[in-house]
Design goal:
Layout: E1 4-10, H1 15-18, H2 32-45, E2 52-56, H3 59-72, E3 77-79, H4 95-101, H5 103-110, H6 124-139, E4 146-151, H7 153-164, E5 181-187, E6 190-198, H8 205-208
Parallel strand pairs: 1-4, 2-3, 2-4
Antiparallel strand pairs: 1-5, 5-6
Helix pairs in contact: 2-3, 4-5, 6-7
Amino acid sequence: MEVTRILAIRHGETAWNVDTRIQGQLDIPLNAAGQWQAEQAGRALSDEKIDAIYCSDLLRAHHTAIAIGKAVGVEPIVTPMLRERHFGKLQGKTWAEIESDFPNESRMWKSRQPDWQPDGGESLLQMIDRIEHASNTLAAPHQGQHIIWVAHGGVLDILYRLATVQHVQAPRTWSLRNTAINRLMWVNQKLQMVGWGDETHLDNQASSAPNNPPADAGGDTPK
């Protein structure tokens, strides 16, 4: 039985990650550290044969995919299927602002209520359906091949839960570090875990990367 091997990678860091400001589907570019991370991920994968790269059409993921694509010799294909969760009116707010100004929404978000939708946004149940559909759609044509998906923290969180059959409200105990390399396989229309959170290409980040960002800068998915 042929499987599709998948490298799932979160985009490089942005200024809003550092500020713990919700990006959602707003189009925020990489900062200098994020561009460095993307280039390091490309170098780490440069010896692997990659058949295709798919990425979210948001700049932070697309630019990360471009850097990786240059290293492996594959041009990324952009798709809105891999976008971050839409956070509606909460997009652009920091975690602290949400907790202060929208306490009910903060509680619903942090407790991962499956059917809760931010005003104008997307529920976790809707996102799970979208990401599961994307997984099947993007993996099916590449059985027997090795592909890359470049996406977002919320997307990677859902991929992990699908691959390990964990409930959407299970506490997150896994890392979602920017540009960490995560390995999955797709077989019989299901994702399976191979390995998660390879960060070795970022080991010298403290001394080499611009701005010396934290190891797991804030994003759109609370623990």
